[in-house]
Structure formats: C-alpha cells, structure tokens
Specification:
about 300 residues; binds 1-O-phosphono-alpha-D-glucopyranose; single chain; alpha/beta; two-stranded antiparallel ribbon; about 35% helix; 11 helices
C-alpha cells in the first residue's frame, strides 16, 4: 500500500506578468474568484485530500501571501464585537494552524522543477503533492482527493490529466500513453510543451501531482529542458526510465486556466453562478447582454 500523502508544495514564485499592472503589488495568487483568493481554492482542495503540511515556494514581492494566512486579530475582534458571526466563520475557515505552513524562497526563476526542488528538505523521504494554484478545478469531489484515492491503489507517481485540442499541446506537459482508456492511464513517457506535430498524444498534465521522493533526486541534476528551464515534467519522465511508474489520472471536474485572463474570467462567472446569493442577478444580466448583442448583429 502507498504511503499517506500529507505534504503539499505550492509553487507561487511566478511574477504573474500576464496580469500586470495588478500584479505590480498584488501576488497573482491573492487575486479573487468572486471573494476568495485563488490560493484559498488550492488550500481547501489540499485539506479535503488529507494534506496537513503546506509548503509555499515564494519569491520577492509575495509577502501579502504570507500575511493572508495569519490570524487578523483586529478584524476578528471587530467582527465579534459587532456580532457579525457569519463573517467571523468565513474568516476562521481561512485560518491555518501554527506551524502548518512553511515558506521557502526560490531565489532565481529557474523553472517549475527548480521551484519544487527548493522544498526538498521539507519533504524528506516521503511522497508529496504539488498543486499549481493557477489551475482551478471545480469538482464534486475535489481533484486532489480523487487522485489520493487512486494513488492509494497504484503508488508510483500520478499527475492530473486532461485531453486538450492538438493545437494547444505546446502549452502543456504531454503524456505518451499506450492505450488511453479508463480513468488511470499508465504513461510510457512525458514531454514538456511539444509542438503539435511532435506531441505523443493530446493528454495534457494539469497542475496536480502526487510524486515520490525519487523525483526530487532526479531534480538534483538540475538539467535544463524546454525554454531553458528546469522542468518538473522531465524529472517525472526520468522516473519512467528508471522503472518507477507514472500514471495520468483523468479527473472528474472542470478545469479553469486562471493563469490566463480568459480562463480567470470564465472561472469568475462560473463560480459566481454556482453561488446562491449571486446566481439570479448574474444570470439575468448575462442573458440580457447576450440578447442585446444578438439583436445588434
Ligand atoms: C506547467 C507545467 C506543465 C503543465 C502546466 C499545467 O506549465 O510545466 O507541464 O502542463 O503547468 O497548467 P506552465 O503553465 O507553468 O507553463
């Protein structure tokens, strides 16, 4: 039986240049979908999957992210004295236990593999999860929880996987699969951001991983890959060559690419429509603007 996964790495060192000027002073991960920061969605998903240790790989300019996870005692007192219990509950649900979060700085932007490697001493000799908060996944059962349950049967390494249009393969890690049937697919190889004509399939890696410590050993080599960066995909692929299995897990749920403006907006609308307090007004508004737009054409 596979060992329990209790640690997760959140690589959040990226500068978020696609969201400038907002990200000039606000870390991308603090930007909100409705009223919750992106990172809160990732934390909630990790907690649902049984994660108890949260490791953030950060960089210069990310202190707002660290503050976000502190208790805000002034605010708590204020809400308490005004009897605003519902808001107090909302606030308390975001508090983290002392010692549950660790922050490691990635001193140079050398790639996702390097960011994960920066957390190696906190991982030690255990399996661990990696969660990319840009990938937000709406699902009845949170994606990482689905994966942890599957991983308990398979062991090895597991990556979240999703079919993408062939013309988009160069934006993803792509799995080389034999037979692509069922929910769990064994990979024969993995390649980072291949051109469509070179892609071994159209099954893409989405930002949820459960990895063994051997991936960290592979990252010790600091080999550069696609874009001149140290790629996590390459370190996982190396495990396949060493006989450690890698599985793609075709999760149940809808993934939003919140690293892009279009994806962020779609997630905002979708999450707002899922909220009882916002649904009716928003859906009326959306119908109206679509109708006006059609009439104008
Ligand atoms: C990263 C990974 C890539 C993966 C993607 C998922 O790429 O390197 O393998 O498919 O996340 O979102 P990035 O989007 O950071 O360029």
């Amino acid at each position: 039986m596979a060992r329990k996964v209790t640690k997760a790495i959140f690589p959040v060192a990226g500068m978020g240049t696609r969201f400038l000027p907002a990200t000039k002073s606000v870390p991308k991960e603090i930007m909100t979908l409705v009223d919750r920061p992106l990172v809160q969605y990732a934390i909630d998903e990790a907690r649902a999957a049984g994660i108890t240790e949260f490791i953030f790989v950060t960089s210069r300019g990310k202190s707002a992210l660290e503050d976000y996870f502190d208790h805000n005692l002034v605010l708590e007192q204020d809400l308490k004295s005004k009897g605003k219990d519902e808001l107090l509950d909302v606030l308390n649900a975001t508090n983290m236990e002392s010692g549950a979060i660790a922050y490691i700085r990635q001193h140079k932007a050398l790639g996702l593999g390097h960011a994960v490697w920066c957390a190696r001493r906190l991982i030690g000799d255990e399996p661990f999860a990696v969660m990319l908060p840009d990938d937000v996944i709406a699902a009845d059962k949170p994606c990482l929880q689905q994966m942890v349950e599957a991983y308990e049967e398979t062991g090895g390494n597991m990556v979240a996987a999703m079919e993408v249009p062939t013309e988009q393969t160069s934006a993803y890690g792509i799995l080389d699969t034999g037979q692509n049937v069922g929910t769990v697919v064994r990979a024969k190889g993995m390649v980072e951001k291949p051109k469509p004509q070179e892609a071994p399939s159209n099954l893409a890696v989405i930002g949820r991983y459960i990895l063994g410590p051997s991936v960290l050993y592979n990252l010790n080599q600091k080999r550069k890959g696609s874009g001149g960066e140290i790629q996590l995909t390459d370190a996982i692929a190396e495990d396949i060559g060493n006989g450690v299995p890698v599985f793609g897990y075709k999760f149940d749920g809808q993934r939003f690419d919140c690293g892009s403006k279009a994806g962020f907006l779609q997630a905002t609308v979708s999450f707002a429509l899922a909220r009882e307090d916002l649904r009716d007004d928003l859906s009326r508004y959306l119908h109206d603007i679509v109708a006006t737009d059609r009439a104008a054409q």
